[in-house]
Amino acid sequence: MLKITNLHAKVGEKAILKGLSLTVKAGEVHAIMGPNGSGKSTLSYILAGRPGYTVTDGTAEYEGKDLLAMEPEIRAREGVFLAFQYPVEIPGVSNKYFLKAAYNSVRKHRGEPEMDAGAFLKFIKEKAKSVEMDPAFLNRSVNEGFSGGEKKRNEVLQLAVLEPKLALLDETDSGLDIDALKVVAEGVNRMRDPKRAFVVVTHYQRLLDYIVPDHVHVLSGGRIIKSGGKELALELEKRGYGWIEDKVAA
Amino acid sequence: MANQDLKELAGREYKYGFKSDIEADQVPRGLSEDTVRLISAKKNEPAFMLDWRLKAYKHWLGRTEPTWAAVHYPKIDYQNVIYYSAPKAKKKLNSLDEVDPEIRATFDKLGIPLEEQKMLSNVAVDAVFDSVSVATTFRKTLAEAGVIFCSFSDAVKEHPELIEKYLGSVVPYTDNFFATLNSAVFSDGSFCYIPKGVKCPMELSTYFRINAKDTGQFERTLIVADEGAQVSYLEGCTAPMRDENQLHAAVVELVAHDDASIKYSTIQNWYPGDKNGKGGIYNFVTKRGKCAGKRSKISWTQVETGSAITWKYPSCILLGDESVGEFYSVALANHYQQADTGTKMIHIGKNTKSTIISKGISAGHGQNTYRGQVKIAKSAQGARNYSQCDSLLLGDKCGAHTFPYIEVGNTSATLEHEASTSKIGEDQLFYLRQRGLSAEDAVGMIVNGFCKQVFNELPLEFAVEAHKLMNISLEGSVG
Questions:
Q1: What gap in Å lies between CA B409 and CA A99, rounded to an integer?
Q2: Residues of B with CB below 8 A from A82's CB?
Q3: What average pLDDT does the segment B23-34 reach?
Q4: Which of A247, A250, A238, A228 has the alpha carbon at shortest distance from A32?
Q5: Which of A44, A105, A146 to mutate to test binding with chain B, by most B CBs within 10 Å of its CB?
Q6: φ/ψ (deg, to 5) at B303
Q7: DSSP-derived secondary structure for A23-85
Q8: Given an 8 Å threshold on Cβ–Cβ distance, is A106 in contact with B437?
Q9: Is B95 on the interface with A (CB under 8 A)?
Q10: What phi and psi, each to the nearest 5 degrees, are found at residue B125?
Q11: pTM, full prediction
Q12: Where are the alpha helices (DSSP H) in B43-82?
């Protein structure tokens, strides 16, 4: 589904990714772990197409297409979803209005008819229930005045509504207490599907107790320096990142 | 803001820019005492009207154009303007069916059908074409409720006592350069009177259309709500696309007696000029309401997306005790548009209350200025004001300016003022695009969200219209 080869990227003038390669197949969950500043968030932003991030070398293929050549909204409509570390507030725009516009833009792209307001409301209420979100949040402005946990839950709601093929979760666990973390993880787990892949970016192993990955990768200095199964995450939790970095340096 | 996202503004479409080919009865170019007399004669006005006009004209001669607003334009040659232009009527109209088909087609094209049976919504329309009112719908229905709604010209003839009593009672002919000019040459407009205790059974609206070349439009609206009366009034405006600038200097006066309320909504979409700033309407308008009675209320809501230059400060004089004034405004300045707009809230009565919500949006090379005054007179014991002025910038070549003037003469007053300026966030845009929205839709959504507080004040159909208009006006504002 996703094939990243020798990716180099910079933010402004600063090189962040320095030859990253990664292959993700449908149905898999990959965890990207690494110390602060290793380029984890940059990777998610590059894949989602955030302006200001420049690819200097390498490729990223998504379902056989050149992902990096697509506009951000086209990537989204093609099924790439980024759950933001810091979801953005849009004052004056109701959550359901925004979700409907997003949902219909994806449907339109797929050649499906747009869903009308009545049907969508029913659909969205079901989805909200599935992530244990109070329907009152649907009428509030997008993320405005939401707590950290509510914002993350809103991201998972969007994930559930848009049903992407490739979901990138950027530090979804940050700022969550354990109860909120469980709800978010359950929401994600319910979305696991043989046709869907997840790339979970996280600093801590904690999230991976709930979202159990098939593969774990350690990102350091802009490259993946070690890959393994879920047990690698546990080892990292115990020993930190230093020992791998030392080993690679040696 | 990353400019790959918000590039220079290109081809914004102005869909009302067509011209209609209609024979017009015009007075010669230029302004003199003879012009004023001619306009008055054409309208068969009573002597008091001509006197008033002549006084205004003489006063105007001694005045100079104001320069304090943050707008720049070449000197206007007032002798090169045509002050009166009316579509040639073949005979007096007895019913709406007799309206010139070409004019009727024009209004149809604008989405304002003049046939009552075609009107879906509960709105009575007065249609003003260049200098004169061409049709007023639902006059009979309204008359049954005792409501007078007609063109200003008809009102002068049919209700001279009301006109003589209220004309100039809120905006005197000496008020300011443009209002004085209007007083001398105004040609038509709408008049509305809601009698005691009557809640107007339908929305009233006036639709203004400038068509003829080189003409100025000088209309006057006067609305009087007697004790306990209620009315909601809407106005809309469009003009053809022309390379020359055209002058529009209107005056609106509102009077609310005890317990009366007037809600006045405007969607101003005069031709704004092209993307290089060529052409467009100069919109110099004086709007003022007097809350004359106790517990009266006047509420202004405006959505200003058109005009090359907007100079407009819908205001409230809060004379009656416990009277309420409100001002809700969205002003958009795109391309080379300049908007200097705001309000004045003059608190005189006790426990008077005012609210100001202003949302300014600047894009392209647009310059948007909020200018507002809150004045608490010595007599205004317990007065309250809340002001909120927010500016949103799209791109880095536009400007937003805020000039709040506050004058407090009574220490028991409570005033709150909040102001914010923000650039449309790259993070907001990216967030919405990551969910599948195009950059243009994303900007539209953010801007409409920004304006929501004001749009919520509009009557429903107008709110939908405003929403669409905002999206059209922003077209081409992203790369």
A1: 50
A2: 434
A3: 84
A4: A228
A5: A105
A6: -120, 110
A7: EE-TT-EEEEE--TTSSHHHHHHHHHT-TTEEEEEEEEEETTEEGGGS-HHHHHHTTEEEE-S
A8: no
A9: no
A10: -120, 135
A11: 0.84
A12: 47-61
Q: In chain A, how long is the greatest CA-to-CA distance? A: 62
Indicate the domain borders of chain B.
24-473
pLDDT at B10: 29
Residue (of B441, B471, B392) closest to A71 by Cα position? B441
Give me the residues of B, 162-191, that contact A with CB < 8 A: none
Chain B residue numbers touching A103 (CB-CB < 8 A): 436
List chain A domain ranges. Answer: 2-249
- In this complex, the residue of A51, A89, A93 whose CB is nearest that of residue B445 is A93
Q: Does B3 touch chain A (CB under 8 A)?
A: no
Is the Cβ of A77 closer than 8 Å to some Cβ of chain B?
A: yes
- Report pLDDT digits (tens) over A218-245: 999 999 999 999 999 888 888 888 888 7
Pairing, β B123-129 against β B132-136: antiparallel
Pairing mode, strands B251-256 and B280-291: parallel
Sort residue A19 into left (φ over 0), alpha (ψ -120 to 50) or beta.
left
Q: Which residue of chain B comes nearest to A108, CA vs CA?
A: B436
Torsion from C-alpha of B463, B467, B468, B471, nearest 10 degrees: 160
Name the more confident of A205 and B317. Answer: B317
Q: Quick check: B422 contacting A, CB < 8 Å?
A: no
Residue B121 has pLDDT above 50, yes or no: no
Give the CATH fold of the A2-249 domain.
Answer: Rossmann fold (3.40.50)
Which stretches of chain A drop beneath a pLDDT of 50? none
CA distances from A86 to B27, B89, B321, B428 (A): 64, 65, 49, 11
Could you tell me the CA-to-CA distances from B28 to A127, B21, B214, B217 in Å, in that order? 69, 19, 11, 15
Least confident of A24-33, B131-140, B325-334: B131-140
Using a CB-CB cut-off of 8 Å, the residues of chain B touching A105 are 435-438, 441
Q: What share of chain B is helix, strand, coil (3-state, %, to 5)?
A: 25, 35, 40
Residue B6: pLDDT above 50? no
Chain A residue at shortest CA distance from B455: A92
Mean pLDDT (whole number) for B278-298: 94
